[in-house]
Protein 1
Amino acid sequence: MSSQHAFASETQRETTGKGRQLVAMKELDKVYGNGTVALSDVNMTINEGEFICFLGPSGCGKSTIFKLIAGLEERTRGDIEILGMSPKEARKQSDIAFVFQDHTLLPWCSVIDNVMLPLKLRGVPKQERLQEAERVLALVGLSDHRKSLPRHLSGGMKMRVSIARALASRPKLLLMDEPFGALDEITRQSLQDELLKIWQQDPSMTVLFVTHNTFEAVYLSTQIVAMTARPGRVSAVLNVDEPFPRDDSFRTSAAFSQWVRTVSEHMQH
Ligand SMILES: Nc1ncnc2c1ncn2[C@@H]1O[C@H](COP(=O)(O)OP(=O)(O)OP(=O)(O)O)[C@@H](O)[C@H]1O
């Protein structure tokens, strides 16, 4: 791999995904009410099954892109579609789930009640809720802690609960906004491995992941979206064409170091 061909130019920004087109953004601008131009002319397609990390300086509009995809903010100009629907329609069908850095668990509810809450709000019958919660708690290795309260869990465990809660709605698109930013390095790496395992088990699930950490982006991604400082634009999309499953042997490989160097060099320009 060389830095000359690693990045697709802005006009060639087609993904190399495993599935059908999931998200289409065309000439997207976002100007907030106070006049802040958060995004300018964002053009991007995202295919089903990708794991895409968004990297860029603070304030470049990464969270804003997520809010537009989730239908939590309205675009100022341009088009955005999720599986041919508006973001709000897609969210209503529970096709989209969020995980934030702050785990947002209800402190007075047990782990399993926290995981079941979104299903309860959607009117899913109790037996089905329980089954689904057990399934996702097993996925994140927390079955034995189903009755614990959040305050009895470590930061990494709270994040696992938060991921389980998002997975319980079986989303097609999982949006993760700096989820591991507050965790120590060892916990972070084990959660990266668990997340990749979960993602690999479901070929149709797409993960969009914001991080400031180049190592994390290279380790996790099928693609890295590099963004410029505000107003945010997509400056390049990098296809990290390294095989899965990935493990510590990838983290310590020469190829990994080369990818990190390439991405870092790009981000400095
Ligand atoms: N509701 C809002 N009203 C006005 N300006 C906003 C609003 N939300 C975000 N902004 C501004 O829009 C720009 C992009 O913000 P955004 O949070 O999307 O960036 P980011 O890349 O996610 O930042 P960070 O990496 O620091 O989390 C910033 O200048 C921010 O201050």
Protein 2
Amino acid sequence: MEQGCRKMGTSTRKFPLHSSKRLRRRFLNRAFAVVYFFAIVALLYHHAESLLYSPTYGAFFISTSLLLSDIILGFMWLNSQAFRMNPIIENIFPENIEKVCDRKNFPALDIFICTADPYKEPPMTVANTALSVMAYDYPAEKLSAYVSDDGGSEFTLFALMEAAKFGNYWLPFCRENKVMNRCPEAYFRSNSCSNSEIKTMYESMKRRVESVVEKGKIIDEYKTSEEEAEAFGKWNQGFTRQDHPTVIQVVSQAGNDTDIRGHSIPNLVYVSREKCRTSEHHYKGGALNALLRVSAVMTNAPIILTLDCDMISNDPSTPHQMLCHFLDSSPKFGFVQFPQRFNGLNKADIYASEFRRMFYINPVGMNGLSGPDYFGTGTFFRRRIFYGAPSSFIEPEIVELNPDNFVERSIKNQSILELAHHVAGCNYENQTNWGSKIGFRYGSLVEDYYTGYRLHCEGWKSVYCNPERASFLCEMPISLNDSLNQTKRWALGLLEVSLSKHSPLVFGVRFLGPLKAHCYAYYAFGPLLSFPVAVYACVPQIALLNDFFVFPKVWDPWFFLYIFLFLGAYVQDCLEFVLARGTILRWWSDQRMWLIRSLSSDLFGSLEYITHHLGIATRGFEVTSKVVDNEQNKRYYEGKFEFGVPSSIFVPFSTGAVLNLAALIMGFLKILRGENLDCLIFQMLIASFGVVNCWPIYEAMVLRSDNGRMPIKITFISVSFAWVVYAAVSFILKLQKI
Ligand SMILES: O=c1ccn([C@@H]2O[C@H](COP(=O)(O)OP(=O)(O)O[C@H]3O[C@H](CO)[C@@H](O)[C@H](O)[C@H]3O)[C@@H](O)[C@H]2O)c(=O)[nH]1
Ligand SMILES: [Mn+2]
């Protein structure tokens, strides 16, 4: 791809494209890690000692559960240190790109947009995303957008056809007015547009698309040409989402279709791969592999951008930014990862949807260890990366899929289209390397994490690029249930990696070295946190209710060890959060959601992993809804948690909430009765921390009356459950003395 810009060696020295800065805080991090490590060892020693000398079964039970919990927490701490050893910030100088490489020599770019459900991912959202990237400041004849529709919906195709027509006006409008946010919906929402003509045009297109989805039918009047009518004809009687032939429709063709100023517009291709009930489709990974092949046959650009359908471009110069890395890099360099930044978070970001640690803090840490993991969206790949390690190329089955193959014919050429249909077939991958050695990798519901991991194991490098202005903006779930179900899917997918033969601790260590393997282990084993959090959320509390005192007394040196461990971790976490431009308010939500997720997503994800492996249940990729309900939206902006639906995923942490409150009240009663505070204090501290964190849950259970409150059924189940857990643990605690 650098061919066009070959003689860059000297010019990039004069006009640098990127630079990197190692953060000085690495020294502090390392020193603190050593101190903290010894503190953990001391704590484990303390537990082991209590275990050996436990006077009763109860004490034995408590010491065992605390020891196991702290081993897991210690292991997670160890993993998290890998990110702290060598953080690096990468800077880019996109203003120099055109000085070292002429526009006409820019490499071609294929953009993949995935959608899977026209009701959860409205076709208008997909159309907006497509328009926002088609309007990139990049030579249009080198740009192709491929939309993969796993929902197999004619409405999505209709929306794209409408988008292409509107694009004829929108693209020149953006160019001439130097618009930065080229997603029409976002642009019209935030600008009082002076040119109301284009706004009217947009509104009328939006009305048409939405009415089609609403009516569930495309009226003939909307099919403006013979070709369009023919395309929709493919949705005949036997066509269902799970069972249908491949549909590939070239919606606009670069070099052939022009905008109102006579400039070319980029290729826009709709692809719905063939689906049949008898063969596995591998969810998004499968969709991306189908796109890899279809695009190889049609345009075969050396660079690929993968996007989720709600990830709009917010900066037309993003391709220039990624070129800063691609034009000046080693042959092992494989991808540039841009962060997900979110549109419309509320002030406290109550569901911690921005995942500041995962998307902003940890990737900087991985930059120093040959690059960040793959986030699934906002990633520019070198096409070659999907065909084996840097030094051992794996030949695909047909020459047309070779990343170096040059496509001479037009994308509407009959034989090209025929081959494209063939490679999108549902049995095409049988007996091939797709999904195992070639392309996006199968086997985990978090195909992004897993694919990035395997690519790094092969020796590819990546870079994290987070420019001042957000390159992309995306949506996040605004109901607690949606948010928890999303992370539950992640938890299940991560366990599929951690407990497989490719586990970071076994396979990863061999190929990545210990530090990077621990970074991957940090995510893969994350769901294990459900155990220690569950223990700390109920064991000390129930012990307190039973007059059982398990922790060191105040003034005991071990007490201070606990305080040091707790504050050390929390203060460091908070500092890093704030240094990554977070607010204290959002950090508080972040740590709260960390607790809540451990007791819901991680727990249920683990249970699903087990049931799936026992063959009791099947697993699936439940798509997160991007539809916004106005009433819900209002509550979200007021910062209220949205429970609303009677979902069992709320039960474990609501149970914990009840137990903590009961323990705290009991503790106060004991103090009032004049019992000794010395032994109580530690358990009281834990319970108070629980109660402060659970405040929104109590509110939702008792104080609220809106539709987002906790369903009575769930409150009832949680209280009963709390009673059962209390009774069971109390029974063990009271077992006769040895
Ligand atoms: O069978 C499927 C299921 C999903 N998708 C697409 O996958 C994307 C992500 O789905 P979403 O429901 O939005 O999941 P999230 O949890 O929000 O996505 C995160 O996590 C996923 C892995 O679980 C990654 O694939 C995503 O890139 C990452 O943003 C969407 O564009 C979907 O259309 C498909 O194409 N086919
Ligand atoms: Mn998403």
